Recover the amino acids of this structure.
């Protein structure tokens, strides 16, 4: 079984693994159709493998409609060693990390007029780009983040306010570079957001990629990491908190394409309220070329109320016999009663104990970001989500 | 002076095979300042008694009562019991991911006292208690019980005992899995708390080893869900020599 709804049987309250066997996908992930032209994709019906868990009817403006591809309003904060500029479609950096694999992503690619290019050079660099005034007209956006060889830094993309947005984010991590990219979706309740992130990781380079989704009506962020060179390392982390009526989705893909590459995928989510939904699909492909690969992916969901649904589907494809390790885990469950008992036995009320447990569950991801100020704010945002959900 | 009275306590648990009777009429009275040892073979129901006092939801009180200064404890929620002054040092403390020891201790102290502790003296108290339990200060930043060794978990339980200052504490096999050095450190901690606060102790153990470091005033032998025999410290010495065979034979 690869998905659960929150209608658990009585007594089945401990987190329980429900997907640990080998999983054989129908079609190998590497053969999926890809194109930058929206016209190359059929109209979306909702029956397609990549759309079948997504509320596509709410997304017609982004899947079919014309998109405003002009430069969008933003507020950027950067220190030394980071440049941010708008560039035309003919910029050489565009198209260096990936090609759309679904119609929404292709529509954004066909539709953007200017791309935001963020370039990190040197060590210990920081940049934050805040988008809070995108408005309710359907838009296309394109961003290219480039980390120069041997550079280190963090790029934070923060999203607030209303938006109807389809976008592609390309991330190119140069040889020996260490880059962290965090995308925070703290949208207003009515936001619709389709994003594909394509990362190309160079030789002995490392990317830490974090998707944090709290707000928005439908938010689908699909990150992929392509390990094309020896010694490449990618960590794909995510956390989400789905409230009543929200759909938060992430389709994660790791493509091991070179020897001695490493990947870790860890997504954690909480769901609370009628109609709160989450989707996590994690594809890991270890190609014949990727000998000595070490990979692990997991998704855990904490169900806080009735009426929610969490789909969690790990897929692992291995084409070589010579791997260092490969594993996956997926679990969806209610509170661990033993944790609540332990906290309550120390005088902590049930309500506060629940809050601590949920916050701790999600904090495990926050603690790994490595940006104290952002971590502090995200923990605050989790508190706010919990308070809002409990007040509701 | 406070008193914890357990009267004719019958407790069951739901299992896949149906309801299982575990405690079959336990009678026990502990006054503040007294140390009672409960000794018994594995499976005799010692942990069940401990969990029932703390209010674990798995255990159902069929009849009997637990009174703290005359107040019915079995009517209280788990956290109310803790705030009323009861403490259970667990045999198997659970991990709580993402919750640091520091945050946990402060939250618990605030809940027990009904107000946040004064920052300065609190930090000092935590530090000195950790020092005496030979816990590295780095523990404060770690997540509760996550990756702790068996001995570290037990020290962390005693750290909580010292900081939360209950009227009565049940220590469920705090000695098991400890080497001699750790056992000494933990026992010293318990004795120190007893000296400072004069609490009543219910010391659950399978072995007599810990009773060399923490002297009991009373010893109760627990067999098949109830107290089979009681006496003074000399009873522990007899058990050390004879084992539980005599009691097991009698109950079989
Ligand atoms: N939650 C439970 N579910 C099923 N059986 C239990 C449970 N707790 C205790 N028991 C059973 O009750 C008996 C007493 O257990 P316990 O109280 O743990 O004993 P002790 O601590 O003395 O070793 C044992 O037979 C044990 O298997
Ligand atoms: Mg026991």
């Amino acid at each position: 079984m690869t998905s659960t709804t929150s209608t658990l049987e009585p007594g089945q309250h401990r987190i329980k693994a429900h997907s640990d066997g080998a999983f054989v996908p129908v079609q190998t992930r590497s053969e999926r159709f890809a194109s930058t032209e929206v016209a190359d994709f059929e109209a979306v019906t909702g029956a397609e493998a990549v759309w079948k868990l997504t509320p596509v009817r709410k997304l017609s403006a982004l899947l079919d409609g014309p998109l405003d591809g002009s430069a969008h309003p933003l507020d950027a904060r950067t220190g030394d060693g980071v440049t941010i500029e708008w560039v035309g479609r003919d910029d050489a950096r565009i198209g260096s990390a990936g090609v759309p694999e679904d119609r929404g992503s292709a529509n954004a690619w066909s539709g953007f007029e200017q791309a935001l290019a963020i370039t990190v050079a040197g060590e210990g660099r920081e940049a934050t780009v805040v988008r809070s005034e995108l408005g309710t007209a359907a838009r296309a956006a394109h961003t290219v983040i480039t980390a120069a060889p041997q550079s280190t830094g963090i790029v934070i993309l923060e999203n607030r306010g209303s938006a109807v947005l389809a976008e592609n984010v390309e991330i190119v991590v140069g040889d020996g570079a260490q880059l962290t990219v965090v995308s925070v979706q703290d949208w207003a309740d009515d936001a619709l957001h389709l994003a594909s992130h394509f990362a190309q990781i160079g030789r002995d380079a490392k990317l830490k990629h974090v998707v944090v989704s709290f707000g928005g009506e439908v938010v689908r962020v699909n990150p992929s990491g392509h390990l094309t060179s020896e010694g490449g390392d990618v960590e794909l982390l995510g956390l989400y908190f789905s409230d009543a009526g929200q759909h938060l989705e992430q389709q994660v893909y790791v493509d091991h394409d070179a020897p001695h590459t490493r990947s870790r995928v860890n997504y954690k989510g909480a769901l609370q309220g009628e109609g709160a939904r989450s989707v996590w699909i994690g594809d890991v492909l270890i190609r014949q070329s990727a000998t000595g690969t070490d990979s692990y992916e997991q998704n855990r969901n904490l169900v806080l109320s009735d009426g929610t649904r969490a789909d969690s589907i790990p897929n692992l494809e291995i084409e070589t016999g010579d791997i260092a390790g490969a594993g996956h885990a997926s679990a969806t469950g209610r509170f661990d009663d033993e944790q609540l008992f332990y906290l309550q036995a120390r005088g902590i009320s049930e309500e506060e104990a629940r809050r601590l447990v949920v916050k701790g569950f999600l904090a495990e991801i926050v603690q790994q970001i490595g940006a104290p100020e952002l971590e502090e704010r995200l923990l605050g945002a989790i508190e706010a989500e919990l308070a809002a959900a409990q007040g509701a | 002076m406070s008193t914890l009275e357990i009267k004719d306590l019958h407790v069951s648990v739901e299992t896949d095979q149906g309801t299982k009777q575990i405690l079959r009429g336990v009678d026990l009275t502990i006054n503040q300042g007294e140390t009672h040892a409960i000794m018994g073979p594995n499976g005799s129901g010692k942990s069940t008694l401990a969990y029932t006092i703390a209010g674990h939801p798995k255990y159902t009180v069929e009849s009997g009562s637990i009174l703290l200064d005359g107040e019915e404890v079995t009517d209280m929620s788990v956290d109310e019991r803790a705030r009323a002054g009861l403490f259970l040092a667990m045999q198997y403390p659970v991990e709580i991911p993402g919750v640091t020891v520091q945050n946990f201790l402060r939250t618990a102290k605030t809940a027990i006292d009904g107000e946040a502790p004064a920052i300065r003296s609190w930090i000092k108290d935590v530090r000195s208690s950790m020092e005496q339990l030979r816990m590295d200060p780095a523990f404060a930043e770690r997540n509760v019980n996550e990756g702790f060794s068996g001995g570290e978990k037990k020290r962390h339980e005693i750290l909580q005992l010292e900081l939360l200052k209950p009227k009565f504490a049940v220590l469920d096999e705090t000695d098991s899995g400890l080497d001699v050095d750790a056992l000494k450190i933990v026992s010293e901690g318990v004795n120190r708390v007893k000296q400072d606060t004069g609490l009543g102790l219910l010391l659950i153990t399978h072995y007599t080893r810990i009773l060399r470091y923490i002297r009991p005033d009373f010893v109760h032998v627990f067999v098949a869900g109830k107290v089979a025999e009681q006496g003074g410290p000399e009873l522990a010495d007899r058990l050390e020599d004879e084992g539980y065979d005599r009691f097991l034979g009698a109950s079989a």
Residues 241 and 385 of chain A are 7 Å apart (CA to CA). Confidence is low (pLDDT under 50) at residues 1-25 of chain A. Chain A touches chain B at residues 336-339, 341-350, 352-353, 356-357, 359-364, 367 (CB under 8 Å). The pocket of adenosine-5'-diphosphate (ligand 1) is lined by residues B 13, 15, 20, 22, 40, 42-48, 58 (CB under 6 Å).
